[in-house]
Amino acid sequence: MTRPTTRATAPSTPRPAIRLLIAVAARPAEIIRDVAACRRYVDPAIAASAPTGDDCPLTDRELEVLRAARAGASIAEIAVEVHLAPGTVRNRLSTAMSKLGAPTRHAAAHRAWEQGWI
Known about the structure:
Layout: H1 16-23, H2 28-36, H3 44-49, H4 60-70, H5 75-82, H6 86-100, H7 105-115
């Protein structure tokens, strides 16, 4: 039984890691020394596109639901207040909790309040 032979071909465009090295070719030795010394290196283009502390990752509806949750309302009360089904309220709260890394809806509401979003 013979196996088909395959020949590796060079990609027509550089892979992302190669492109990164090409992009920082102006000072590669300095960057390599920093990384070898366990210091961080963040490409300036990536850093410029990163969200700042003022950027709110939540949608308007998630913020609306969190405002009601912060007031201590139950799921049913929040649903009536914001004109959504209780299941939708739970989904919005769950998504907000995930985005904020909060274990509970009250913790998520508190974090959003601390940031000045609600």
